[in-house]
């Protein structure tokens, strides 16, 4: 505690933001005075259990069985992980935490808890996990107030509407936004690797650096928050909706490999290693169920259009970006899988936990993967489609046998309930599955997804 | 008896499609309504006045296929899907028959409660006991003999509607005079149980 006190002194900290994500991936937390923070850092800080019980419109999700930690708006406790303590801005620190119950057990559906648990499973099998996440978003010239006033429609993409991906001939406003994001990431200490223009107008990609599974998911959550804060600071707005218009959608590709003290366990000089093959052998049969987590919202599924980039079939291939899993092989450092299903609106703690958990299941049980696809995975007559709606994906998850073991039956049952509630809210709240992206979706997802 | 009547819904049905199918299945269990249903031929489209949902019902060969949306060339009839299904006035005889079929007799509150209990008893999170108190008849019924009971109190018609899946959610019942005694967890489970009955899943 003395050390923590000294750290706060040295950095001139007067307040601390405690941070977490809810099931929908929304960044949540509280700002605490320095004294309050120091007083509760060991026990954790109380939040009502509706943190994991309300939907994005703050409506209580009813209709699902409650786990034992949910009560009459019972308290659960966000316990800071001091390894994540950073200076967020002058005078203000930030720390990420995990949710625990009053009796000191981890909250079963807390996304970071889940990922920590699956990451620990990997360690038990003798592996460390390396991941990287690609963050795609769209930035607009309008401020968030203007965007709200326009119902998040007819907005002006920052950087103009001409061109394709990777264009450097962008205007100064576009550069100013991304350079400010870069500056904030550096100041906070969030390792990043690259940023660039992406395919749709106003669309950008920011890559956080490779690292441990939990560490990278933390970077993902904080990087998105920084992108939002910078947008607000510069009078712009940004969205992580998987698709905000009829233009190309946006993703959160997950890159993942396992390592042993001898090096990258996915590497073999002649194609996928046995470990990589078995990992894919677990990932593939769980892919339909994992889709519920990787494509969490109604709008997420609108991105699944063949030939526009996203995978549309349950498939994998070597060096094949039309498949759902691209295996990168033959390189001692870069051998990995790229899991290409998640939308930019996915909670990447949960996606990483699901993919890692399924892959480890394959390694443990020595599962052989299906045959790798060669050629284009889109438009095939024999391709098994990725679930095309929130209900299809929920049904696939309900039928899945791997994910309840990897993530816990309690989480899986709870998650399915929240997705069915999302489906019901959409249809009974004004959403239309046959229209383009509806106002219901924009109002619900534009700022918070 | 309803097993012989074909009532099909599309793959990946919407809530409206599911609830219309449930109402028609109930009608198919009533002899005179079953005869009405199996004798219909033609297409009716309904558009909800409360949200953006719509459904098309195709009656043919003694059965019905239901899918979401309005088929091209079919004029949708406004639908108010509260506890009952009310269609806007129309001279269309098929539509009038459909309105009748969408409003099968509501079972007596005791029967509705017993069916509700049977459909959900033992489901994860569902109360181990259920006490239903009918305030208008000053009677009660209890399920799950010795277990602590979740209590539902209300007038007979509101209880019957709630337990037979009328209204969008179980909370609709509370808006119509039903009160409950129990935990938030059990309220959530009751809402889930109501979906199960309402959507026939």
UniProtKB/TrEMBL annotation, chain A:
Pfam families, per the entry: Gln-synt_C (PF00120)
Question: Which EC number(s) does UniProt give?
Answer: 6.3.1.2
Top enzyme category: ligase
Q: Where is the signal peptide?
A: none
What keywords appear on the UniProt entry? Ligase
A single MF term (Gene Ontology)? glutamine synthetase activity
User: GS catalytic domain location, by residue?
Assistant: 111-449
Answer yes or no on keyword Ligase: yes
Q: Which BP terms in the Gene Ontology apply to this protein?
A: glutamine biosynthetic process
The entry's family comment says:
Belongs to the glutamine synthetase family.
List the protein's name: Glutamine synthetase
The scientific name of the source species is Streptomyces nymphaeiformis
UniProtKB/TrEMBL annotation, chain B:
Q: What is the protein name given in its UniProt record?
A: Uncharacterized protein
Q: Which organism is it from?
A: Streptomyces nymphaeiformis
């Amino acid at each position: 505690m003395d050390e923590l006190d000294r750290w706060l002194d040295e950095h001139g900290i007067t307040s601390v933001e405690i941070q977490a994500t809810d099931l929908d991936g929304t960044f949540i937390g509280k700002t605490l005075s320095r004294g309050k923070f120091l007083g509760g850092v060991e026990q954790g800080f109380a939040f009502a259990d509706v943190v994991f019980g309300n939907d994005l419109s703050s409506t209580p999700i009813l209709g699902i069985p409650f786990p034992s930690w949910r009560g009459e708006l019972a308290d659960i406790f966000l316990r800071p992980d001091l390894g994540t303590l950073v200076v967020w801005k002058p005078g203000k620190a930030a720390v990420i935490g995990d949710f625990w119950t009053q009796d000191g057990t981890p909250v079963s559906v807390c996304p970071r808890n889940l990922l920590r648990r699956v990451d620990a499973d990997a360690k038990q099998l003798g592996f460390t996990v390396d991941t990287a996440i690609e963050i795609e978003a769209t930035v607009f010239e309008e401020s968030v107030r203007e965007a709200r006033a326009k119902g998040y429609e007819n907005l002006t993409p920052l950087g103009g509407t001409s061109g394709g991906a990777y264009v450097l001939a962008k205007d100064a406003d576009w550069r100013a936004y991304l350079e400010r994001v870069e500056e904030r990431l550096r100041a906070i200490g969030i390792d990043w690797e690259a940023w660039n223009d992406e395919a749709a107008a106003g669309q950008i990609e920011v890559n956080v650096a490779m690292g441990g599974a939990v560490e990278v998911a933390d970077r993902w959550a904080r990087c998105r928050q920084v992108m939002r804060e910078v947008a607000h600071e510069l009078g712009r707005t940004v969205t992580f909706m998987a698709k905000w218009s009829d233009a190309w959608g946006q993703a959160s590709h997950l890159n993942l490999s396992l390592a042993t003290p001898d090096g990258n366990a996915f590497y073999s000089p002649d194609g996928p290693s046995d470990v990589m093959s078995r990992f894919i052998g677990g990932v593939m049969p769980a892919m339909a169920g994992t889709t519920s987590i990787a494509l969490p919202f109604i709008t997420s599924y609108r991105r699944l259009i063949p030939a526009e980039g996203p995978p549309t079939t349950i498939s994998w291939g070597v060096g094949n970006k039309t498949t759902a899993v691209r295996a990168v092989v033959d390189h001692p450092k870069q051998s990995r899988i790229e899991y290409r299903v998640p939308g930019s609106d996915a909670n990447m703690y949960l996606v990483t936990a699901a993919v890692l958990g399924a892959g480890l299941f394959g390694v443990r049980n020595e599962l052989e993967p299906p045959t790798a696809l060669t050629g284009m995975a889109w438009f095939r007559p024999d391709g098994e489609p990725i679930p095309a709606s929130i209900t299809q994906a929920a049904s696939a998850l309900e039928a899945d046998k791997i994910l309840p073991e990897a993530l816990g039956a309690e989480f899986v049952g709870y998650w399915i309930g929240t997705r069915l509630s999302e489906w019901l809210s959409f249809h009974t709240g004004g959403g239309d599955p046959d229209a383009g992206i509806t106002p219901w979706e924009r109002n619900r997802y534009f700022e918070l997804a | 008896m309803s097993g012989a009547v074909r009532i099909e819904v599309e793959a990946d049905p919407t809530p409206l499609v599911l609830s219309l199918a449930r109402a028609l299945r109930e009608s198919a269990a009533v002899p005179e309504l079953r005869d009405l249903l199996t004798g219909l031929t033609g297409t009716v489209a309904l558009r909800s006045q409360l949200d953006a949902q719509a459904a098309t019902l195709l009656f043919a060969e003694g059965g019905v296929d239901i899918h979401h949306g309005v088929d091209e060339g079919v004029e949708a009839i406004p639908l108010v899907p509260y506890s009952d299904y009310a269609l806007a006035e129309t001279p269309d005889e098929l539509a009038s028959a459909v309105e009748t079929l969408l409003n099968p007799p509501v079972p007596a509150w005791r029967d509705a409660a017993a069916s509700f209990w049977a459909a959900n008893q033992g489901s994860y999170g569902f109360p181990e006991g259920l006490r239903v108190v009918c305030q208008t008849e000053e009677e009660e019924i209890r399920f799950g003999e010795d277990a602590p009971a979740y209590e539902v109190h209300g007038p007979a018609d509101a209880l019957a509607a709630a337990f037979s899946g009328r209204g969008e959610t179980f909370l609709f019942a509370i808006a119509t005079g039903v009160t409950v005694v129990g935990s938030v967890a059990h309220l959530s489970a009751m809402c889930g149980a109501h979906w199960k009955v309402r959507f026939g899943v």
